[in-house]
Design a protein that fits this description.
Blueprint lengths: L1 E7 L3 H11 L4 E8 L6 H14 L7 E3 L14 H7 L21 H12 L3 E5 L4 H9 L8 E5 L15 H5 L1 H9 L4 E4 L1 H4 L3 E2 L1 H10 L2 H20 L6 E2 L1 H10 L4 E6 L1 E3 L9 E3 L11 E7 L1 H18 L3
Parallel strand pairs: 1-2, 1-4, 2-3, 4-5, 5-6, 6-12
Antiparallel strand pairs: 7-8, 9-12, 10-11
Helix pairs in contact: 1-10, 1-11, 1-12, 4-5, 5-7, 9-10, 9-12
């Protein structure tokens, strides 16, 4: 069975990605690493611990990682993130707090040691800024050791969601993402090209409410706030984008998508800072390191998403 690590900035779609992974029998989650992004790092770490308790998986350790971008000393949550995810990252829904604490080891050390131990049997999915991965690469350039890395981030064929070229996760730490893309690490990029083709509506959250368990009711309420926020910022979509869950799904089952293979970089200077684009210095390099998801079987993904998450929520009877 594949081992899985989720690197999260735990907001609402991270919550749904965690539920999807926990409902997937193909993988075993061996740890969660936390970073900043949708919320402050410590808030995200506490959200991860609380959600694991809610889902009955107190056995999964959580590791705190970077609290700010590589070239910054602080981090402030953007107003757009607070609008979409709520001030607490979970749509301002108050779920029971966890009594657990994060592990003492830093996230980058856990990533390095896990990659050494599991090698090709490890899948790492990052759904926030790439800072923890960049820190691991800087500490040990060979840390990935053949493991599979999938990121939710970037936009290659569509506009960004921060400005015309910038996707939110990349925008939080462009230098970290650029280090990752240029490192030679094999990466699958699941960006806005596909994630905005996968939408959840009130119809699906109503189905969770019918399950009636506390976990189902909490997740439905959290997700409803996400759908409501999307109705404000992008009413033309007709639902909320399943960004992070799709990244987990494609990491588990790549047949859900089709890919364009290339070598990428991140622009680090204005006016295009944060843009994910082909690296002109490696265009003719026959060794391509990034697979960019360009199409997705949205219908099959949504069906699997609802089945896996609903099965998990149904199992939590208390």
């Amino acid at each position: 069975m594949k081992k899985l690590i989720l690197d999260l900035d735990t907001g609402i779609d991270d919550c749904l990605a965690l539920a999807y992974a926990l409902g997937s029998p193909e993988v075993e989650i061996i740890g969660i690493t936390g970073t900043f992004g949708n919320v402050q790092r410590d808030t995200g770490v506490q959200n991860s611990l609380a959600l694991l308790d809610l889902f009955g998986r107190q056995d999964i350790p959580v590791f705190a990682g970077a609290s700010h971008a590589l070239q910054r000393s602080t981090f402030d949550v953007q107003e757009a993130s607070a609008l979409i995810h709520g001030r607490n990252g979970l749509g301002n829904v108050q779920i029971p707090k966890s009594n657990r604490q994060p592990e003492h080891a830093p996230a980058c050390d856990f990533l390095i040691e896990s990659a050494k131990e599991h090698g090709e049997n490890l899948t790492l999915v990052a759904t926030g800024p790439m800072t923890n991965l960049a820190q691991a690469l800087e500490k040990d350039p060979e840390f990935h050791n053949g493991c599979q890395i999938t990121i939710m981030g970037g936009a290659l064929t569509v506009p960004g969601n921060c400005n015309p070229v910038q996707e939110a996760n990349i925008s939080q730490d462009p230098e970290a993402a650029d280090i990752l893309f240029r490192s030679g690490t094999a990466i699958t990029m699941v960006g806005l090209d596909v994630t905005l083709q996968t939408l959840l509506t009130y119809k699906e959250t109503a189905a969770w409410r019918q399950i009636g368990t506390p976990a189902a009711n909490y997740v439905a309420e959290i997700t409803d706030s996400y759908i409501q926020a999307y109705g404000t910022i992008a009413p033309y979509l007709g639902g909320c984008g399943l960004h992070d869950p799709l990244a987990v799904a494609i990491a588990i089952d790549p047949s859900l998508a089709s890919f364009f293979t290339t070598n990428l970089k991140v622009d680090l200077s204005e006016p295009f800072r944060g843009r994910t684009i082909g690296d002109e210095q490696r265009l003719n390099n026959p060794h391509k390191t990034v697979k960019v998801a360009l199409t997705v079987d949205a219908e099959r993904f949504l069906k699997e998403f609802m089945h896996r998450v609903s099965t998990l929520l149904r199992s939590r009877t208390f």
